[in-house]
Amino acid sequence: MKLSFLGAARQVTGSMYLLELEEDYRILIDCGSDLERSNGQTAPTVTHPGFFPFEASSINLVLLTHAHIDHSGNLPNLYREGYEGQILCTEPTFALTNVLLKDAASLNQKRINDLNASKKQRVKDRQIQMQKDLFLDRQVRESMENVVPIAFNRKFRVADGVDVTFIPAGHLLGAAHILINVVENGERKSICFSGDIGRKNYPLLVDPASIPPVDYLICESTYGNRLHDSQSTPEDVLADVIQRTCIDTPGRLIIPSFSVGRTQSLLYTLNRLYTERNFPPIRVFSDSPMAFESSKIYTQYVRMLNQEAKVFFEDNEALFDFENFQFLESSQASKAVSNYNEPCIIISSSGMVQGGRVEYHVAENISNPYATILIIGYCAEGTLGWRLLNGQQTLSIKGKDHQVRANIEKIDVFSGHGDRNDLVSFVSMQSPETLKSVFLVHGEYESMESFRDTLAEAGYPQVVIPKKGESFEL
Fold first, then answer.
1. 189 Cβ contact partners less than 8 Å away, ≥ 6 residues apart
2. Residue 43, pLDDT above cutoff 60
3. In terms of C-beta density within 10 A (0-12 exposed, 13-18 middle, 19 or more buried), how is residue 154 classed?
4. Residues 247, 342: contact at Cβ < 8 Å?
5. R_g (Cα) of the chain, nearest Å
6. Between the CA of residue 439 and those of 217, 270, 339, 443, 446, what are the distances in Å?
7. Among candidates 146, 288, 141, 262, which has minimal Cα distance to 196?
8. Of 69, 70, 17, 19, the residue nearest 44 (C-alpha)
């Protein structure tokens, strides 16, 4: 069999891997959007005029590790290009992916409408190109109609001599490691795609589960060169920030946060602080319609959360609803928060402070010395979040310059990715004597190089860092 790395190779986003078996059976594992700027890699050779470096109609099956857009975001384009098969994933991944893709389609439609309103020819030309590249709601519906939900830890036969198993990965509700067993020419081969590896004791989510011995391991490496900053609990870290920014000094706490996964962990932690630690009832606003929809899905699948969350839900009958908490549904309600003069916490997307309603809240508070902007996750280079973290003193937001007088802080206790130690633990489930290769993906190249050295010291010399478009015979 042949494995090709078509995305998230020597970069973080755009996860997409093609596994080609005998008798022309082709499995695509993840089909994510590339959210980063070009990093100078040579793109895979395109032998046809389509969106992908392969004929979409030649794919027999798609396996989806989890819902995040850098793993799922090009599924509608796959159907638009001619794919007619099924998507296998867990039930929560199906539900969350539907929310994420519908939101992306809505944004795509808005971009096309804005370009349609222009009378400039160069903009018209761009609009024609965008209509070729951007999927809309119809393609999302077609994708979701072809999803087949798969239970965790149950072997599922997909073809003669081929079975797949979805194993809990933590990281996000429904996220999975995908184990594929293949029998070719009488020889049994096994390969595991890590997806994104979660961390232990993360709010709401189960710990990553063990995987059995495999021949080949495709392992993410986002935190391959570093450890998480704090070993304290999310409750302790968030309590300290709120105490300093909203209680000791009455002020505003702005938390840019991804709507799916990160916001639910935040709201659950805040609920526990108010319920179990008797925190003052500071007003909390969650400003993201997609976070609202995602939170309903988390509640729907509470049985798939960790034991602590299930007990909390039984005792309190809610994961995310607490005193002085409000979801802001309309844009008018979002802007009206600017007139709220008491200490408050505003949670809004996106987590990188790039697009979404959070840009408005940052613009309104960036020059306020009594405001704090708390970055709680990764920010890609060039985003507003990245510029805030790098100490830029003047920021342009929607064409207007703002002086940075607010306090800028960063914590990573809410990162859903396991750190270097977690990644080493994941690989260490495999015997160095029987594991044939480890392929590192989904990380910055420096992180991959560092993690490769760490694994070599741990007794795993068989580590490969594939380039985008590179293929390997397994």
1. 1, 181, 182, 183, 215, 216, 474
2. no
3. exposed
4. no
5. 22
6. 6, 38, 52, 12, 15
7. 262
8. 17
Q: Give the closest residue to 16 by CA, choosing from 37, 35, 31.
A: 31
In sequence order, the 6+-apart residues with CB closer than 8 A to the CB of 392 are: 404
- Is residue 44 a contact partner of residue 468, using CB atoms and an 8 Å limit? yes
Q: What is the pLDDT of residues 237-272, one digit of tens each?
A: 999 999 999 999 999 999 999 999 999 999 999 999
- Chain mean position to CA 30: 12
Q: What is the per-residue pLDDT across 58-98, written as a single tens digit (0 to 9) for each?
A: 999 999 999 999 999 999 999 999 999 999 999 999 999 99
C-alpha–C-alpha distance, residues 139 and 105, integer Å: 9
Tell me the per-residue pLDDT of 316-346, one tens digit each, with 9 for 90 and over: 999 999 989 999 989 999 999 988 999 999 9
For the sheet with 86-89, list strands across it. Answer: 147-149, 86-89, 61-63, 25-29, 16-21, 2-7, 471-473
In Å, how far from its chain's centre is CA 301? 19
Nearest CA-CA partner of 388 in 351, 334, 417 = 351
Residue with tokens 């010291």: 457
Residue of 381, 296, 291 whose CA lies nearest to 327: 291
- For residue 149, the one-letter residue type is P
Name the nearest CA neighbour of 168 among 223, 204, 211: 211
Asked if residue 148 has pLDDT above 90, the reply is: yes
The structural domains of the chain, ordered by start, are 2-226+417-473 (3.60.15.10), 234-410 (3.40.50.10890)
Instruction: Check: CB of residue 256 under 8 Å from CB of residue 385.
Output: yes
Q: Which of the pair, 307 or 128, is modelled with greater confidence?
A: 307
Q: How far is CA 471 from CA 62, 74, 132, 181, in A?
A: 18, 21, 28, 19
3-state SS assignment for residue 188: strand
- Residue labelled with tokens 């078509």: 6
Closest alpha carbon to 220 in 188, 242, 252, 194: 194
Sign of CA dihedral 118, 119, 125, 131: positive
CA 298 to CA 102: how far, in whole Å? 18
Please state the pTM of the whole predicted model: 0.93
